[in-house]
Structures are given as structure tokens and as C-alpha cells.
Amino acid sequence: MTRLSLRARFSLMFGALFLLAGAILLLVNYVLAARYLPDGTTFSGSQAAPTVAGQTTVSEGAPAVGNPEVITSIDDYRQSAVRTLIIVSGFGLLLTGALAMFLGWLMAGRVLQPVHAITATARRLEAGNLESRINLDGPPGELKEMADTFDSMLDRLAASFDSQRRFVANASHELRTPLAVQRTLVDVAMADEEASPDLQRLGRQLLVTNERSERIIEGLLVLARSDQGLASSGPVRLDEVTEHVLDSMSGLAARHEVTLRRSITAKTVAGEEILLERLVTNLVHNAIIYNEPGGWVHAGVDGALVVENTGPAVPAESLPGLFEPFRRLAGDRTSHTNGAGLGLSIVRSIATAHHGSVRAEAGAHGGLRITVELPGPS
């Protein structure tokens, strides 16, 4: 059942109150008319008084005995007057009630106009664009105070997001530089011909740890950036991005003995190409490393981006948790990987930043089937 809008409810309430007040007034008029309009029995007198031209009058207060026609005529006139009063007043009440509802509709629209302005502004807002403001004009009042408070809140949010962007930009440099220096120092130490086997083994372990730290930091930075929304947006050929990612992943697939399959048609979406490439890369990378030797990965682009792979079956109750940061399945699915558990979290964050959606399903051949739907250019 469709719920009435607030404007319609205001109009109906205004009209109902008007009709109720009018009905009460009509009832009062009926009672007064029925009580005070005289009937035939109220005319009394000792006898009829003759008048000129043979006419007869009945004095008030004298019994109209002997004149039943006069009594009947007066009663009929009284009943007709009361009935006419009720009918005419009833029709008048209905017409004025309809007019009251129409005027209530107009008044409610004017009163709720600031609310519509607030709603329209909220719909235009997104994490990457907090520039819209209500700027409600008019005299001071509750709605203007609410609109001004909303604008002040947007100012604070915009300042907060700007601060986060600056932090991400600075952290990107400050966190990567020490790791790059550490990796260089370890490479130099391992390149020394006099390095002992123990030092070589320690160096390899440090490089693995360093690489994992770099992946975690890179993933967190991408996640933070996508959570803030899009800095810019334009038409992106999703099919070309997917083709490029699949070509770049062919070496990784060969090392894991996984076959890459594709069925791609032209598809243009609205967004940021770098983030969309990262989305596809994460999906294909996860589909390769969370697989089995001899398995396959299928990437399709049609109305949506679909990436499906073989591999260990995923329990249905575990599917929602796959998109949480640092959440990975236990057992064979992750025991042979060094992932940070951020891949699908980044996918969901990027899809959300593009006003899209992502869902995961258990694959028909084991593994996962992940579908990403993204809007096209406006």
C-alpha cells in the first residue's frame, strides 16, 4: 500500500477539520431552526378575525381550531424550510470543504518547500563533493534554523574530508619512503658476496615481510581514498580496462596454473579510471590466487562486470564477511597466500564510491562469482 505524502496528509487533515467544524455548525443551525421556527400549533386565538375582501386572519396565540388547512400549510412550510436549510448548507459545506483541501494543499506545499530544498541538497551530496548548500532565504523560523544548521554541518564535514585527503596524500609518501629504504638496504646487504647463508636467509624473510607491509599500506591508502569519494569522474571504457588487467595478469595465472577466460563486450561507465582498474585488478588477482592448479578464472563484461573462478567451495554464511577489511576464510582457501585481506573491501568501497553495487555468490563449480554493477555516464 502506497503511503500518502506529508503534503497530502496535511491537506486531508486540514480538510477533515474544516468539514468537522462545518458539520457541527450545520447541526447547531438545524437544532435552532427546528426549535424556533413556528408550527401550526403555536398559532392560537379565540377565533379568526375577519378582514377585508372576505379574508380571515388568525391571531398569534389563538388556537387554530377549525382551520386544519392553515395548520397543515404552516407545518409543511416549516418542514420545507428546515429541509432546504440542511440540503443547501450540506452542499455548501462540501464545496467549501473541497476548496479548503485545495487551499490546504497549496499552503502545505509552501510550508514544506524548505524541506524539499533540504532533501534535494542531501541527494546531491556525496563524499567527494560537499559543495552544495541549502542557503534558505526567508524570515527566521524553525525551518530556516534547521536549514542553517544543516549548512553548518556540511561546512564541518567538508573541512574534515579535506583534512583526510591531505592526510592520505602525506601518509602515502611518509609510509612508502621508509619501506623503500628498508628494501634497498636489504637488497644491498644480500648482494654482498661475503654475506653468510644465514644473512641471505634473513634478508629473504625481511623482503617478504617488507613486501607484505607495502601491500597492506597500499591497500589501506586505496581504501581510504575510495571511501572519500571520487575526486573526478568521466566516461571510462570498462571493457578496455578489463582486457588490460587480464593481459597483465597472464603471468600470475601461468605461475598458479590457472586459465584465464573472457567474454567482453563494449561497456562505458562513469567514474575514475585508476580506481576502476584497481577494482578489476583486485577481483582477477583474488580469483587467481584463491584457486586450484588446473582451475580457471572467467571475466565477463556485459551489463555488469562478472568475475568467477573455480576453487574451494565457499559456505553461504561466509559470503557477507568477505567484504569486511582483514576478513579472510580459514583453511585451504587462504593458507597458501600472503594477502592482507583488503582486496574485496577495496572492491566494495570503489563500487560504492561510483554509486554501484557488488555482490558475491557461491560459484556453480566451486569458488566465487562476484558481480559488480556500475552506472553509465549521465
From TrEMBL:
<dbReference type="InterPro" id="IPR036097">
    <property type="entry name" value="HisK_dim/P_sf"/>
</dbReference>
<dbReference type="InterPro" id="IPR005467">
    <property type="entry name" value="His_kinase_dom"/>
</dbReference>
<keyword id="KW-0808">Transferase</keyword>
<keyword id="KW-0812">Transmembrane</keyword>
<dbReference type="InterPro" id="IPR036890">
    <property type="entry name" value="HATPase_C_sf"/>
</dbReference>
<keyword id="KW-0472">Membrane</keyword>
<keyword id="KW-0597">Phosphoprotein</keyword>
<feature type="domain" description="HAMP">
    <location>
        <begin position="109"/>
        <end position="162"/>
    </location>
</feature>
<dbReference type="InterPro" id="IPR003661">
    <property type="entry name" value="HisK_dim/P_dom"/>
</dbReference>
<dbReference type="GO" id="GO:0005886">
    <property type="term" value="C:plasma membrane"/>
</dbReference>
<feature type="domain" description="Histidine kinase">
    <location>
        <begin position="170"/>
        <end position="378"/>
    </location>
</feature>
<dbReference type="Pfam" id="PF00512">
    <property type="entry name" value="HisKA"/>
</dbReference>
<keyword id="KW-0902">Two-component regulatory system</keyword>
<dbReference type="InterPro" id="IPR003594">
    <property type="entry name" value="HATPase_dom"/>
</dbReference>
<feature type="transmembrane region" description="Helical">
    <location>
        <begin position="85"/>
        <end position="106"/>
    </location>
</feature>
<dbReference type="InterPro" id="IPR004358">
    <property type="entry name" value="Sig_transdc_His_kin-like_C"/>
</dbReference>
<keyword id="KW-1133">Transmembrane helix</keyword>
<dbReference type="GO" id="GO:0000155">
    <property type="term" value="F:phosphorelay sensor kinase activity"/>
</dbReference>
<dbReference type="Pfam" id="PF02518">
    <property type="entry name" value="HATPase_c"/>
</dbReference>
<protein>
    <recommendedName>
        <fullName>histidine kinase</fullName>
        <ecNumber>2.7.13.3</ecNumber>
    </recommendedName>
</protein>
<dbReference type="InterPro" id="IPR050428">
    <property type="entry name" value="TCS_sensor_his_kinase"/>
</dbReference>
<dbReference type="Pfam" id="PF00672">
    <property type="entry name" value="HAMP"/>
</dbReference>
<dbReference type="InterPro" id="IPR003660">
    <property type="entry name" value="HAMP_dom"/>
</dbReference>
<keyword id="KW-0418">Kinase</keyword>
